[in-house]
C-alpha cells in the first residue's frame, strides 16, 4: 500500500553552466544526463523519510534505462509510470542568472513536455485505499483543477501544490486565479523570486511577503528563500529554518525546491508541526544538493541519520 504520491513530469537534466562550478560546466559539455524533474525530485525528497511513496507520471519509454534502476534500488514501484512517447523529456539548465535562478531549454520541445502532463484521472487511478498525500507541480488551468477537485472528493487525498510560475503565468494569471486554484489544494509551495513578482514586493522583505502568503487559502505554505533556507507558513505564524548541509557545501542546486516541497508534503501530512516541516524540507534539500541528480540510494542508515539531524535541528530552533 502506498501512502504518498509524487505526481507530474519527470525530466532528465544537463547542466550546461553553473556559476562558480567548473565541474557542472564540464559535465554539461560532455552531455551527461542526470535523472530529475519536479516529480522525481519530490519523490526523492519523500523517500528520505518514508518507503511508502511512488511516482505517478507519463514519460518516455527510455525511462527504463535510468529511472527504473533508481526505483528498484530504492524499493519503489514503477506501476504508475506510463510511457507515452519514445523519450523522457530532457532540459538543458543554465545557472547564470543574477537572482540565483536558472534558465532552461527543452531538447524535445514544450509540446513534448505538455503531452506528458499528468492528468487528474491518472492520480485517481494511482490512489491506493490508504493514500494520504500527494505532491504536484501544476499550472493554473481551471479545467485541470475542476477535474482534480472530483478526485480529491473521492479519495480524500491531501495535496501539496508547487506552482508552475512560468513566463506564461507571469503574463496571464492573476493573484485571484492563483488563490482560486489553491482553494483545491491543502498546501502550497513558492520561492522568493516567484513570490516577489506575484505580490509585487522586493524579495528581501520577508515579513511583507509572508503577510501576503498568510492570506492564501491553505493550511501550510513552504516559502523557499534560496540559500538562506525556508519558512513554513501557516495562516497565523511563520517558522524559519536555515539551509542545512548534512555533509558539506552544495554541489548542485538542481531540484532542491521540488525535493524540499515533496519532503514538506510528507512531513505535514504525517502530522509534524510547522517548524519540523521546515527542518525536514531543508534536510532533504541538503541531501539532494550533495551530488548531481537525486541521492543514488536511500539506505536505512541514511534515513536514520536524517531523522537524528531533524531531531537535533528542531531542538535547537525550538529554544
CATH homology group: Ribokinase
Reading the helices and strands in chain order gives EEHHEHEEEHHEHEHHEHHEEEHHH
Largest sheet entry: 9 strands, mixed
Number of helices: 13
Distance between the termini: 38 Å
Q: Which word captures the global form? A: globular
Helix content: 40-55%
CATH class: Alpha Beta
Mean pLDDT: 92
In terms of structural class, how would the helical and strand content be classed? alpha/beta
Strand content is 15-25%
**What strand line-up does the widest sheet have?**
4-3-1-7-8-9-10-11-12
Count of domain modules:
1
- Using the CA coordinates, give the radius of gyration: 18 Å
Segments where pLDDT lies below 50 for 5+ residues? Answer: 19-30
Structural write-up:
- 42% of the residues lie in helices and 21% in strands.
- The chain is an alpha/beta fold and 319 residues long.
- The chain has a single domain, classed as 3-Layer(aba) Sandwich (UDP-N-acetylmuramoyl-L-alanine:D-glutamate ligase).
- It has a 9-stranded mixed beta sheet with strand order 4-3-1-7-8-9-10-11-12, with helices on both faces. Strands 2-5-6 form a 3-stranded mixed beta sheet.
- Helix 2 (38-47) crosses helix 11, helix 2 (38-47) crosses helix 12 and helix 12 (274-288) crosses helix 13.
- The chain is globular.
Provide a brief overview of the structure.
This protein is of the alpha/beta class.
Amino acid at each position: 500500500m502506498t501512502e504518498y504520491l509524487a505526481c507530474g513530469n519527470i525530466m532528465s537534466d544537463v547542466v550546461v553552466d553553473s556559476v562558480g562550478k567548473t565541474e557542472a560546466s564540464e559535465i554539461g559539455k560532455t552531455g551527461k544526463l542526470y535523472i530529475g524533474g519536479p516529480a522525481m525530485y519530490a519523490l526523492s525528497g519523500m523517500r528520505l523519510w518514508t518507503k511508502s511513496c511512488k511516482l505517478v507520471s507519463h514519460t518516455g519509454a527510455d525511462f527504463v534505462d535510468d529511472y527504473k534502476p533508481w526505483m528498484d534500488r530504492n524499493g519503489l514501484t514503477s506501476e504508475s509510470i506510463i510511457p507515452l512517447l519514445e523519450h523522457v523529456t530532457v532540459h538543458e539548465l543554465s545557472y547564470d542568472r543574477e537572482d540565483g535562478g536558472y534558465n532552461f531549454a527543452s531538447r524535445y520541445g514544450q509540446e513534448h513536455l505538455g503531452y506528458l502532463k499528468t492528468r487528474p484521472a491518472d492520480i485517481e487511478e494511482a490512489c491506493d485505499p490508504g493514500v494520504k498525500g500527494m505532491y504536484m507541480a501544476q499550472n493554473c488551468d481551471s479545467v485541470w483543477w475542476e477535474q482534480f477537485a472530483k478526485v480529491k472528493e473521492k479519495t480524500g487525498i491531501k495535496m501539496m501544490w508547487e506552482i508552475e510560475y512560468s513566463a506564461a503565468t507571469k503574463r496571464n494569471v492573476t493573484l485571484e486565479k492563483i488563490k482560486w486554484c489553491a482553494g483545491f489544494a491543502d498546501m502550497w509551495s513558492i520561492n522568493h523570486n516567484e513570490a516577489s513578482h506575484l505580490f509585487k514586493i522586493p524579495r528581501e522583505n520577508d515579513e511583507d511577503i509572508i503577510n501576503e502568503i498568510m492570506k492564501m487559502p491553505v493550511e501550510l505554505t513552504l516559502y523557499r528563500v534560496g540559500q538562506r533556507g525556508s519558512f513554513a507558513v501557516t495562516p497565523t505564524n511563520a517558522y524559519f529554518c536555515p539551509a542545512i548541509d548534512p555533509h558539506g557545501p552544495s554541489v548542485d542546486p538542481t531540484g532542491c525546491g521540488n525535493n524540499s516541497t515533496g519532503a514538506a508534503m510528507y512531513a505535514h501530512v504525517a502530522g509534524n508541526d510547522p517548524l519540523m516541516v521546515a527542518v525536514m524540507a531543508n534536510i532533504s534539500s541538503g541531501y539532494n544538493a550533495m551530488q548531481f541528480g537525486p541521492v543514488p540510494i536511500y539506505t536505512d542508515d541514511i534515513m536514520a541519520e536524517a531523522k537524528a539531524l531533524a531531531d537535533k535541528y528542531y531542538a535547537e530552533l525550538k529554544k
